Amino acid sequence: MTQERVALFSHEVVGPPAPNKQRPRIRLSRNGPYLVAVDDLSNSKGERLEGRHGVALCRCGASNSKPFCDSSHIRTGFSDERCPDHTPDRVVDYPGAAMVVSQPGPSDAIAPSIRIARNGPYEVQGFDLDTENWSEGASRERFTLCRCGGSKNKPFCDGTHRSIKFQDDSN
Ligand code: FES
What pLDDT digit, counting tens, does each position of 1-42 carry? Predict the structure, then answer.
């Protein structure tokens, strides 16, 4: 069993159990990774990564096995708290920002996928997300999730990866 799969099943999951429905779901482990089963997972180089059977995706930014969790969040004391002075999603200034603004269209027309932005967030579409932190007007069809660990608006990316010069040469 791979390290990321060990992490997937050993974390406390935040929020209620997932309802029984077709749409896939991203779950958040408390102060730990994103937990998800995803067929279409790729990095910024266009490489497909295996996620179909369930993976734990790093969101503290410290994993040595990015994008997968290696439990570094424990060592670093990562907190998934959203800061009270977080930046509203709508005014974020970075290339993926448009993905968090409401977009029309039927939800069943979007194939679930997760793309890893270069030195930036997870670009997600077609998944439900277990969080209460949605901002008014934010799209629930396409959104970006922080993977640098520095966002003030967790679990969403707020562009902080730029200012902290988050780097992931592998993806
Ligand atoms: S990836 Fe963390 S703020 Fe963008």
Answer: 444 444 444 556 665 555 546 789 999 999 999 999 999 999
**Residue 28's domain spans which residues?**
1-171
β-sheet bridge partners, residue 138: 101
Gap from CA of 140 to ligand 1 centroid (Å): 18
Asked whether 150 lines ligand 1 (CB < 6 A), one says yes
Give the residue from 110, 120, 107, 122 showing the smallest Cα distance to 34. 122
DSSP 49-76: E--TT-EEE--SS--TTTTB--SHHHHH
CA distance 105 to 125: 12
Number of domains within the chain: 1
Q: Which of 99, 151, 168 to mutate to test the pocket of ligand 1 (most atoms within 8 A of CB)?
A: 151
Ligand 1 center to 164 CA (angstroms): 9
Q: What type of residue sits at position 14?
A: V
The answer to whether 68 and 170 have CB atoms below 8 angstroms apart is no
